[in-house]
Design a protein that fits this description.
Order of helices and strands: EEEEEEH
Mean pLDDT: 90
Number of strands: 6
Shape: elongated
CATH topology: Arylsulfatase, C-terminal domain
Distance between the termini: 59 Å
CATH architecture: 2-Layer Sandwich
Strand content: 35-45%
Strand order of the largest sheet: 1-2-3-4
């Protein structure tokens, strides 16, 4: 099984949930709504889940061994970090453009 695509769909700076991610496996199967969570020991992923009739949350889809979970988590966290860096660069670029425009207006 190969993770052929990781899409960071939503990034938030507030709260413990930092992003919502989708992964594609072997270009044939997609898992949506994987969450990137900030915990006490750093970032980790939470697989998509649903509340059962007993009130407990249960994963809808999940890896069945630690090696696979580790690979999925690492790829997702790498994609998340890259997306955050890109978002930061984009914001800095926008600020630079606005700053330049404001200076030109003032002249």
């Amino acid at each position: 099984m190969t993770i052929t695509d990781v899409r960071v769909r939503k990034i938030t700076k507030e709260g413990k949930m930092k992003a919502v991610v989708s992964i594609t496996l072997d270009e044939e199967f997609v898992v949506h709504d994987i969450k990137v969570i900030e915990g006490e020991k750093g970032l980790f992923i939470a697989m998509p889940s649903r509340r059962a009739s007993d009130g407990e949350y249960r994963d809808i889809a999940h890896p069945i061994n630690t090696g696979t979970r580790g690979r999925i988590q690492q790829m997702i966290l790498d994609a998340y970090e890259k997306a955050v860096m890109q978002e930061t660069e984009d914001m800095e670029e926008i600020e630079d453009v606005e700053e330049t425009a404001n200076r030109e207006e003032a002249e």
